[in-house]
Amino acid sequence: MKLPGQDAIARGADEHLITSPIKLPRRVVERPLLQVGKRLAMALTVLVATALIVYLDRDGYGDNSDGTIDLLDSFYYATVTLSTTGYGDIVPVSDTARLINILAVTPLRVLFLIILVGTTLEVLTERTREEFRLNRWRSQLREHTVVVGFGTKGRSAIQTLCATGLSKDQIVIVDPSNKVIEAATSEGFVGVIGDATRSDVLVRAEAQKARQIVIATQRDDTAVLVALTARQLNRGAKIVAAVREEENAPLLRQSGADAVITSASAAGRLLGLSVLSPSAGTVMEDLIQQGTGLDLVERPVIKAEVGRGVRETDDLVVSVVRGHRLLGYDDPAASPLKLTDRLITIVRATPDGPRLPDTRPLPRD
After folding, report:
1. What is the model's pTM?
2. CA nearest to 154, candidates 171, 142, 137
3. pLDDT range class, residue 239, cuts 50, 70, 90
4. pLDDT digits (tens, 9 = 90+) for 43-86
5. Where are the alpha helices (DSSP H) in the chain?
6. pLDDT tens-place string over residues 132-149
7. From residue 92, how far is each of 21, 62, 67, 279, 330 by CA, in Å?
8. Is the dihedral of CA 77, 80, 82, 85 positive or negative?
9. Bond from prior residue into 332 cis (ω within 30 degrees of 0)
10. Can you tell me whether residue 58 is helix, strand or coil?
11. CA–CA separation, 91 vs 94, rounded Å?
12. Is 293 helix (H, G, I), strand (E, B) or coil?
């Protein structure tokens, strides 16, 4: 397969990279510009109130330049007073003006400083808090799932994983688009901005500690490069990838993918099946949609089932996984069942979700 380049979206990855390429799920806070706007409005209100107080009592103030106080002088005095500059060219001379400075202007000066200092402290505190959350996230993240690509395929894969009980904080999304990561974090996921064909981007997603990696890129050549990079970082993770063209599936398996799904062919087969038998197509679509109707799950063999035949189990067994072999339910070698076998069964989805399959990766040759 020809590898002309990276993903079309990934070509603009460097243009979208920001100072912090890892984004944790959003908290419900006001927008920074809105917060700054409110603080600025409060500061201007304090300034105008101080200037009006001075102007109303302008006869109690003295000006070294011309001896009179106008509206501009009032705003000038309010500005230098609130900012604690205090040039001394305009000063309160009457007892009333000095009393007003003690009771009104001084508290306004303190309020003005609190607004300015508070805004700065809040920015610094927010940065420190975000850095602390990021470090804690890195230290606690283990056995998670990395999803490369948050398009239609990536979203569908995440919905299925969440339907089986996987929590959102155990999913990390990698995508080169800043807008896509913004959408992911708004839904409660951790996002990493960058091109997943680069090892440093996958390292930021802690792919070296991941249990499974889902590759749902837009291009097959990008999927191959991501699989090679991911397998180099993590030898034990289960890697599942999607390709558009079926001819590229063997190359992706050679690159380290444990399972490859051909999206175009799978959709075409489902369409053909629905034409021949709409009911069969409905059943297949039901099996694909995790958490509703019938679910297809993989589980280990329990002790009570050891030595029994495939048809003697309580569940409807479709296949038996024995080592690296996949045996059909009608294969004579599938029975009797062994304790190390794994069963792929069809079960009825419950309101609490289907029984969770054990997703630990099988040993590799």
Report:
1. 0.56
2. 171
3. very high
4. 888 889 988 998 898 888 888 877 788 888 888 888 888 877 77
5. 13-16, 32-56, 71-82, 95-100, 106-140, 152-163, 178-186, 199-204, 220-233, 249-254, 263-276, 278-288
6. 777 787 888 889 999 999
7. 55, 6, 12, 91, 101
8. negative
9. no
10. helix
11. 9
12. coil
* Tokens of residue 329, six digits: 């339910």
The sheet with strand 190-193 has its strands ordered as 22-23, 190-193, 171-175, 145-148, 212-215, 238-243, 259-262
> Measured between alpha carbons, how far is 330 from 137 in angstroms, rounded to an integer?
47
CA distance 195 to 205: 11
pLDDT value at position 173?
Answer: 93
> What local confidence, expressed as pLDDT, does residue 33 receive?
65
> Closest Cα to residue 296, out of 278, 305, 281, 283?
283
46 neighbors 72 (Cβ within 8 angstroms): no
Question: CA 61 to CA 362: how far, in whole Å?
Answer: 86
Residue 196's pLDDT band (boundaries 50, 70, 90)?
very high
- Tell me which DSSP letter residue 177 carries: -
Residue with tokens 């969770």: 356
- CA 296/CA 311 separation, integer angstroms: 17
* Beta-carbon count within 10 A of 43 CB: 17
Q: Which residue do the tokens 């200037």 mark?
A: 51
Dig out the tokens for 198 from the structure.
């680069």
Residues in the chain: 365
- Count CB-CB contacts under 10 A for residue 3: 12
